[in-house]
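Researcher: We're teaching a course module on how sequence relates to structure. For the next exercise, students receive a sequence and then see the predicted structure as tokens, so they can try to spot secondary structure elements on their own. Here is the exercise chain.
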Amino acid sequence: MHDSRSSYRYPVSYPVIFRGAPFVGEGTITDLSLRGCSIVCDRTALADSDVKLSVIFPDSTLSLFIELGKIRWVSKNVFGVEFLRMPTITRHRLDHVLRQQGNTPCAPPIGPGSAQQVNSISPGSFPL
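Model: And here is the predicted structure for the students to work with:
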């Protein structure tokens, strides 16, 4: 299988709330990059579903809101989400969090432009 990631993935353990039509769930993000994440949860997700994510960082009172993500793969109770749209401020916060990780990435990027670019929009919020 060819891995088309173009961003480093960092091992993490952050609670997440995700919502799509017609489900709401909770899980744990197990790896995180500027372009996506893997989530472990107690339910099976549907590949190609659109989702909204609210990531809860341990040292922050504000969650990180991903306005639009796409479930790209599913394997039992784990699924991968590509971030498609997030407020600009969220993109900056995510970049800051990843720079402070200090962890070794899970996997190196494969090549420039091999994944869809994250679109930034003006700040807004959508409660989960």
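Model: If you want an answer key for the exercise: The helical segments are 88-99. The longest helix spans residues 88-99.
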